[in-house]
Amino acid sequence: MTSRHPSGTSRRRLTLSAAVAVTGALTAGVLALPTTASAATVSIAAVQGTKRISPYNNQSVSVTGIVTAIRSTGTSRGYWIQDPIGDGNAATSEALFVYTGSTTPSTKVGNRITVRGTVSEYYPGGTAGGGQSLTELTSASITSTLSTGNALPAAFTLDAASVPDAYAPDAAGGSIENLTLAPATFALDLYESLEGMRVQVTDARVVGASNSYNELFVTADPNEHATPRGGTGYGSYASQNGGRVKVESLLSTAFPVADVGDVLSGTTAGPLDYDDFGGYGIQATTLGSLTDNVLAPETTRAQNANELAVATYNVQNLDPTDPQAEFDRLAAGIVRNLASPDVVALEEVQDNNGATDNGVVAADQTYAKLIAAVQAAGGPAYAYRQINPVDDQDGGEPGGNIRVGFLYNPARVGFTDRPGGTSTTAVSVVGNGGTAALSVSPGRINPSHSAWNASRKPLVGEFTFQGKTVFVVADHFTSKGGDQPLYARDQPPARSSETQRGQQADQVNAFVKQVLAVQPSARVVVVGDLNDFEFSNTVTKLTAGGVLTPLINSLPAAERYTYVYQGNSQALDHILTSPALTPYDYDIVHVNSEFADQASDHDPQVVRLVP
User: Taking Cα atoms as reference points, which of 23, 30, 42, 7 lies closest to residue 79?
Assistant: First the structure.
């Protein structure tokens, strides 16, 4: 999806002005910077206000509260203070984060202190990213420690009763920053009204597996669009699953390694934070114990002798410099979990030296290493077909030259090679007495069209199975990079990347129509990582005119996912077939997306056809 920075390291800018040097004194472990003599003494609730932007933004204030938690590592250090009494208004948070940069605070949890500093609205992803802001106190100094050892304010319980079903107010695409919060109506407003305050979840089910940044997602609403394997399904733009909350830890103990469906048993509690890499989350000072649900990777059945099995698998920037263990895991998934399909469309195959940007575009070593690993795992001796892209023209990791390609089992499937297919040659459809064929095979669909700028070009191959021709189109549409997050300050959030994917869908749809115009009974399978949902405009455009059927819609709604992002189980990968290809047996094979230990971030899928 999008790149990010590790937690607590370089995730945020420094807000200290260069003009204010380190000449300030150290007071209670906080860099004491000059503040105006006219700092207003106000309550924390007054600073937070009833909207997302503080009425005291950029002003110097003095506030009093109890220290509830301390972040003492990285460059985003600081502490949270909370008023134990508050103002009685549910729309105003009673807590505030005090940012100290790379300086470790020397105050302690339970101290009741008065802090003086400047109110700031910090945008973790930058203002251009579309995310919300975190109201915090910067350039701060502790002016008084009033008492120590105070009991912490009770934590607000996040659960199905307290988190509203509706996710965010609708501002017709405009900003919600200046709308008065309605925490009883919208989940985003509830979280904003609790910003910095102690919150808790109990026996929280994991809906997004632990990652390398020591984060995971849980749900505060266990019945919200639950999947059979313990996740939360993302079934429409209006079903954002407001119960999802990120969990990080302020503890020195090891972070739990959790898969989807596991449970943080007992209480997980801490201040409610916000960043632009998942939205609202708990900075845990108390972490529930991990209860393992023992989620197992799925396997699918093998195809029968008269069935053609076509699969798609995003292998996540695979290149020969990756460890052999990565190739072995992917190969085992193809052989054991996917049951050695006849054709496997691969996405994100990198060139022979991976991200080294030196003009190399060939990927023969990548394919050879994967094919050897498949054979070592007991699978067939696959052959492959692909077309090298123009250097650095297909997006993805710079220098990696990711592309789509085919593995196929020549013991069961034939490939019709038609020469002339280059990175810039457009494949066309030719007819011979009412039978469709490709001008070049493999070939790329209209590669010079602007729809494919900085994006992978679809690859079409002409296969034969038991004397019948089957056209397979491998796709990897442009990513969602640049889209605003679900928790954006503009609501509904802008999904600007959909424009190009819609153009790409139009191109593939037009190609399939060309095939069917020559031969209405032609067998066409469109597969790959479309980077969009089954309910998206992208899929609507791809299927326009009834030329393709999205097979994912044949599954129950709760099972329609191939990727888990920020606790939402969602469908990005698809298989679609032309009308002649019925019946079919279709399966998404969940082996990656729900697990902390992944061979790829996508789940593969397969369809078994009787052409």
Answer: 30
